[in-house]
Amino acid sequence: MKHSRTLISSLLALASSSAAAVESYDIIDLGNLGTNPAFVFDVNNAGIAVGYSAGPLVDVEGSDTQQPDFTSHAFAFDNPTMTDLGAIVNDTESFDLSVAFSINENNVAIGYSFKEVERTDSNGDPFTTVIEKPIYIDTASQAITEIPSFDASDEQPGRALSGNDNTLFVGFGKFNPPDDTDDSGNALDTYYDRGFIYDSSDSSLVRIDPLTDNTGLLSVMRDVNNNGIATGWAQKNVDDIVLSVAFYVDHADPTNVVEMSLLSDGNSFPWAINNAGVIVGRAADAEKTHFTAFSYDVATQSVTDLGVLNENSPFSEAFDINNNNQIVGTSTNSVFPTTNHAFIYEDGVMKDLNDLIDCKVDGSEPIAPANWTLSEARAINDNGVIVGNGILDGVPKGFMLIPRPGQQPQACQPFFTEDSSGSGSFPLSWIAFLLVGGIWVRRKS
């Protein structure tokens, strides 16, 4: 264990020494809290990753079956240790759940947890229900702090999605517009998602409304940088068509919401913003035929189409950008069958991360296609460490990639040999594979 931790520390130090393009990565399986896979969403500069995983299987009393000890819990992975971050205490085991979407440089995880709340029905009788509660968690102490609802007297569901290194957290919660009425003018008790910016220093909660005056529309805050610039998306009514559009707003002036002019006037969804004010996400392309990953510079208001991995499978989405302007996400790699591959975009080029990890090794020789398929890269820190989700030996798994500057990935050995006459032999199984339309693609793990 100590050796593994020393190794990862050395690799992180090496990775931080250069922000140049990386030729290859070491891959780490994040494991899980119990018997089910862990899914990862973010990593900070200390190399601590967060996400969620279901609990270990336990015996069901009076039965021969087993079930997870809890539905899922947020975790913090600090190689090689995975820490269960717990959940808001519930009486109902099936609702024992929490998820972490983000982690800041103070090692605070941000997400949500199920919570039981008391309600009163139309007859005035009390009952208990379960809601999603936005939270942040100190990963060292596992202390959970709840983010309040818009109306303190009416606790409603919500999720916290991200936070900066200061005191700001963003997400969305349910809001009941006071002027929401039916055709007869009667007040309606209808709740809609509204984005929020929460300042933990003074417990202030700022609501960010949709871009047009329509109570039935939604808004969500996705990320906030250390300068207090937050990004999100909101629905907008344009000629009776509802579009979802990306925007940004300064926490110091929350009434000044700026809609981003992107690749077209179609739908757009931001995911992340770095400290320089560069925002990434996905947006309808210029022809409005598909979604493509984009970057947008708040200072210059310039937008870049990041492209796709496969021009015949035109879809990509950027999930994160670090302070070195390295961007990661996912893009469709093939249509039949439909598969997505994780990518990194740097120096103007989108690269498939599956091409930057070693081939599966037997002994000392890389001889076979990888047992890993990297499907999506969810986050990248300033040291170039990437986390994401993929498939390992047919099982969904979270992964961490550690940069190896200056090293090329180990390539696979060919699956054929040459006999003494110079004619090549080829396994019948691969011939059968090719006859049914398969294409041998070099993949690595």
TrEMBL record:
Question: Which organism does this sequence originate in?
Answer: Aliikangiella coralliicola
Tagged with keyword Signal: yes
**What is this protein identified as?**
DUF3466 family protein
Alphabetically sorted, this entry's keywords are: Signal
Q: Which InterPro entries match?
A: DUF3466, HAF_rpt
The domain of life is Bacteria
Stored NCBIfam families? HAF_rpt
Q: State the signal peptide span.
A: 1-21
